[in-house]
Design a protein that fits this description.
Blueprint lengths: L3 E4 L6 H11 L7 E4 L10 H13 L3 E4 L3 H10 L12 H11 L9 H8 L4 E3 L3 E4 L9 H4 L3 H6 L14 E4 L6 H9 L4 E3 L14 E6 L5 E5 L11
Parallel strand pairs: 1-2, 2-3, 5-6, 6-7
Antiparallel strand pairs: 1-8, 4-5, 8-9
Length: 235
Amino acid sequence: MSRRFAATDLHGCLRTFRYLVEQELHLRPADHLYLLGDYVNKGPDSRGVLDYIMQLQDFGYQVQCLRGNHEHELLATIHGTPNANDMWKLAAERAMTLASFGVARAADIPAQYVRWMAALPLTLELPDFVLVHAGFDFALPPDKMQQDTHSILYTRNFVFDPSRLAGRRLLHGHVPTPVAEVQASVAARAGAIGLDTGCAFRLNPELRHLAALDLDTWQLHLVENREEDYSIAKR
């Protein structure tokens, strides 16, 4: 029987993500792994995370990925159109991300990664869940709510309305949330659940975990950051 898992905000933490997939989840090709965006920046190996995801997909694993704001901003930077939420404001993170690709400029990131990121969808609908990177502006008309790219990628606060999702729950990332709060939300089977436990923030004991939720059993899998030391802003 296949299983379904959702995880988010990997942020270059390849060792942690590999451990989650191979040692914690024991992912099988028949299982479904949904990733809710933010594969690059902040952590030490952005390219390695993309390589590993693409390798899993090439080997026939059912890994479906959404776009996060960091992929969105990286694409904007590559194309010379950085926006107001430019991910490149922190020089140390910018240097670490570019170094993982072996380039000095974002425009030199190899084309296969650019194509892969550009093809990422913004939302994914399952029979019982709607998956998105950040959330929705539930105050918008229904036909505009799921087309509002800014809210989908950037919102940090929203009032959840299950009627707008045909009674389905919402899974999202984007906002680093203490592990204890995520555990409580999962235990309550809340209508909207944020799964970003701040994996990249290795210095923060309330965060620094990568979380994966089993969408059928509601088991929350947690793996503590397993990367070698790297420079990152404290949170």
